[in-house]
Amino acid sequence: MPFPRAVNRLLASIPMLVAGLGMSSSVLAQTPRELHYFDIPPMMYADAQGRAAGTLVERLRKVWPPELPMPPLLMAPLKRSLLDILHGAAPICLVGVFKTPEREAAAWFSSPIYRESPSVFLSTRAAAPLMRRFPSAQALVEDSSLRLLLTDGASYGPQLDAWLRQRTGGVRRVSAPPARQVHMLVRGHADFMFTDQDEAEHLLKDLGAAGRALEVVVLPGMAESPTRHLMCQRDLDRRWLDAVDEGLRQLEVGSGAGS
What are φ and ψ of residue 62, in 5° steps? Predict the structure, then answer.
């Protein structure tokens, strides 16, 4: 479907050499059918009406070019959406993912949309003293004596991913989102999980009294807070993603001017 005249004017203003990308006109006509997101409150979640909400989602809406129609935001399993994009199975984008070399080789990525709050571990009360005996966060993650709960198919940012590759066992991978993973910690199915400060506060608040069975652990050398991006299937038109990047740049310029 051809772009509306207003959209063409916007895209024409983006400094991009289409010919250099070797894209056909049929590819250039493609925009995402859907924007998928996954459940990681308070960054992304479905509100009481089932609509996408959260700090990251609102930031994306804020920078979305008004001339471009925003595709529907749909909650979907993270691993399935990742595979659909990496294998070219669907013209979609995934909101709020980390950039990895494997993903970047097979998909388009926006500029950073969001940087997480400081990284922390969420652990059981029983495991917390054992975790604090480790001299560093890296030493804990690379050791296999405590049971680590991970989201299947997820990246945790370049630093944590590198540490995980050195770990030889003691990992349980699940498809459940973090809001359900904390219940697994409470029931003793694992000893700790990765999260960030904002998410940990949200998860513990939602647990209520049961949250007293868990605590936040911070060790020396915690992983640097990674950035989250929009990840898109490679057959889509890169120009509209550049327009989103421009919106992000303008937002950063405006934030800097007001600080």
Answer: -65, -35
123 in the same domain as 199:
yes
The reply to whether 245 and 208 lie within a common domain is no
Q: State which residues form the domain around 201.
A: 119-217
Name the domain count of the chain.
2
- What does pTM read for this prediction? 0.80
**How far does Cα 115 stand from its chain's mean position?**
9
| Residue whose pair of structure tokens reads 């922390």 in the numeric block | 120
Rounded to 10 degrees, the C-alpha dihedral 91/93/97/102 comes to 30
Helix (H) or strand (E) holding 247: helix 238-257
Please report which helix (H) or strand (E) contains residue 130, including its range: helix 128-131
**Burial class (CB within 10 angstroms; exposed 0-12, middle 13-18, buried 19+) of 181:** buried
Q: What is the pLDDT of residues 119-148, one digit of tens each?
A: 999 999 999 999 999 999 999 999 999 999
Provide the 3-class DSSP secondary structure of residue 156.
coil
CATH number, domain of 211, equals: 3.40.190.10
